[in-house]
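Suppose you are handed a protein chain with no further information: no name, no annotation, nothing but its sequence. What can you learn? This example shows the usual starting point.
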Amino acid sequence: MKEIEGCGVFEGSDGHKSFTCSVPLLDAEKYKVAGQLFQWSVKNGGPGLPVLSPALYDSILEKSDVHFDMADVADASIRRVIEDVSNEDVIVRQLDCTGCLLFDRSCLWL
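A reasonable first move is to predict its three-dimensional structure. Written in structure tokens, the prediction is:
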């Protein structure tokens, strides 16, 4: 499992890793090997890939109650966007602006 952990198929912090997106690794079948090792481990009562985010792990196993954490988002720029959208004030301002635009457009049609 240590070899898979260091071969480039994962990104993120320890215990919250997710898969990278790499065509060369896909062509080299690194993701396939990681998946096979994960499957073999889970089938035999092992831990699977303990480096994975708990949410990703539960999603792969199709558990019904999956909780995501901001630590599960490896890309800092995407994490910032989620944090901005999660901020209620930003959402309210965006909805207000969208409502104004929709209202203005509907007034033009009258």
